[in-house]
Amino acid sequence: MSNPTSNSEQPLRLLVIGAGKLGGYHANIASQLDGVELVAVADPSAEARAALAEKTGAEPVADYREAISRIDAAVVATPTVTHLDVAGELLAAGKHTLVEKPLAPSLAEADKLVRAARQAGVTLQVGHVERFNPALDAVREDLADPRFIQATRTSGYTFRSTDIGAVLDLMIHDIDLALDLAGSPVVGVEAMGFSVLGDHEDMVTAQLKFESGCVAQLTASRVSYELERRVQVFTDRAFVAVDLNTRKSTVVRPTDEVLERRFNVAALSSERKSELMAGLFDELLVRSESETPAVNAIEEEQKDFYAAIREGRSPRVSGEAGRDAVAVAERILECVEAHRWDGADAGRRGMFASPAAAVLPMGLPLEGERRRAG
């Protein structure tokens, strides 16, 4: 892997592309990290790039190409549909690149980016920031060899990332976590979902079956009145529940007597049953709770990116990992589109499960016309 910053005393020269919310986070963090020089921030909006440049001390540029010759690495925080063009050009120029999730809107485009990084011999990292959530790291040993994974991720409608739906916007995080935890190929996918406000799916539930026998149940909604980011994992030896928002974790570890099937319910006296009802999670299913201190996960993600560049190693979330998540997301979207809501070919199907067109305001396209229009 090439390394344009082989001298560890030289700062790594960085460009942040995109001055929106995520681009702002990345630029502000990079501007304060030792060993990093934020050279420029790029955005077609003069107001947005000027405001971010003023906060970070970087040069504002309208076109990222203006700064390519002066950088070693870049963060791409632009709309998903632009990732192939923007990141592809950076990689072809030999620049290490961190691409915000998802890596691309399709497997075909994700494959192209992974190949481009390999051909150039540079680092490609994908912004699956939940991998850096300290609550998961705190219980990592108890997550080994999962049998069942359940993840729920819901939020209100932010009116951002409207170029993609809930699968690539929200569920992609939990797809990545499930793939990382299971460590096994996906052999089956089932899913259903529908659109509520826009032209993409807003609510989706999916089930993944892994070659190892593990099953993952994933739910995502961006039209919810509750903000929720939870993961539950069942293994052969424990149950783990993690609130990714509050960083609170609960681990339940059955005693050896329970695990080895030596616990005989039928042999218990009435008195002992009463005792165990009150102390089940102290004696048999031993529960422990913890709360990890807050960290800036995007900062940890950036630090891993820079360390991977300097050390010539793979980042924690490689381009290949980002590509694999997109591959599963694509299969989920295919299932969503194929789902028949009325159980018949002539009935409603796909994400647009609206009633008959008679209830729609005049002038709006029918379901079939909307689908053909893209």
Q: Pairing-aware structural class of the strands and helices?
A: alpha/beta
Question: For the report, how would you describe the main beta sheet?
Answer: 8 strands, mixed
Roughly how much helix do the residues carry, as a percent range? 25-40%
Q: SSE string, helix = H, strand = E?
A: EHEHEEHEHEHEHEEEEEEHHEHHH
Question: What is the 3D form?
Answer: globular
Tell me what portion of residues adopts beta-strand conformation: 15-25%
CATH architecture assignment of the largest domain = 2-Layer Sandwich
Overall domain count: 2
Instruction: Count every beta strand, where a strand is a DSSP E run of 2 or more residues.
Output: 14
Q: What's the alpha carbon Rg, rounded to whole Å?
A: 24 Å
What's the CATH first level of the largest domain?
Alpha Beta
Q: Which stretches are poorly predicted, pLDDT < 50 over at least 5 residues?
A: 1-6, 355-374
| Helical run tally | 11
Output the CATH topology of the largest domain.
Dihydrodipicolinate Reductase, domain 2
N-to-C terminal Cα separation, in Å?
40 Å
Mean pLDDT: 91
Strand order of the largest sheet: 8-9-10-7-11-12-13-14
CATH-assigned homologous superfamily of the largest domain: Dihydrodipicolinate Reductase, domain 2
